[in-house]
Structure formats: C-alpha cells, structure tokens
Amino acid sequence: MSTRRSAGGVRWLEPDEERAWRAFLRVMVAVQAGTARDLAAIGLSEPDYEVLSTLSEQPDHTSTLGKQADKMGWSRSRLSRHASRMEARGLLRREPDPADGRGCLLVLTAHGLETLDNAAPAHVESVRQHFIDRLTPEDLAAIEQIDRRLTAPPTDR
Length: 157
Description:
6 helices; mainly alpha; 157 residues; three-stranded antiparallel sheet; globular
C-alpha cells in the first residue's frame, strides 16, 4: 500500500480509504435523515427525543444542564436555548441547581414523559426500518467494535 504525501506532508486518502469514508458519511446521512423525518412526523426533533429519553432514564427524571449537554455532545449554551424551546412546549421545566448557584436542573414534566411514551414505539420502529432490520447480527457486532475503536482514546500508530 502506498501512501501519497504532498509537499506539506499531508497523508491523502488512498482510493479504498476514500470509498470507506464516503460510504460512512452516506450511511450516517441516510439513517439520520430517515429517523429525523419519522420523528418530525410525530412532532419531535432528534434533539427533542434525545433530551426526553435521556432525562427519562435519570433518577427523578432530572439532570443538570451540564451533564445533559455533555451526554449529548452539545455546548451548555446550545442546550440551554433548546431547553427554552422545549420548556415553552411544556416538555420540561428548569429548576435552580442547589449544588451550583449558576446552574440549573432540567426536569422532565408529566407532559414530556407522556410525549416520550407516545413517541417511543414509532421511533423504535423507525430505527428498525432505517438501520437494525437492514443489517445482520454480524454487521451489528462489527459496528459495536468500530464504535469501541473510534471512541477509545487515540493511540500512537
């Protein structure tokens, strides 16, 4: 295998690497577009569903804004703006964080939990339709292995 380098030392992608990269991008876009479209049909965005589902898994359906932002890979300000929109729809409420005077807690409301309970079956069916049912058990295991490699701390090669 040859490694093409420019004068600046850039390791350009080999043809098979570029095909794999582009395939990965197409898969992400296709799956995400399908599930986002299906969630939109029931009145939720992907971030809405992520916030609702992760809050539902927390004790008392409550999380700090910081922990929630970290879990979603968002900045606190981005989540704060999104939470404001969800709060206006009655899906969650904010409360002062007794452990951090500058922070707040996000609390799933009864309406938010009901919305999640109503949306979950359709979302699971969407995930099956656009992802799970199209793959073999071996494919799913390979994706899990790839996830472990890509989310582990980088090692020197």
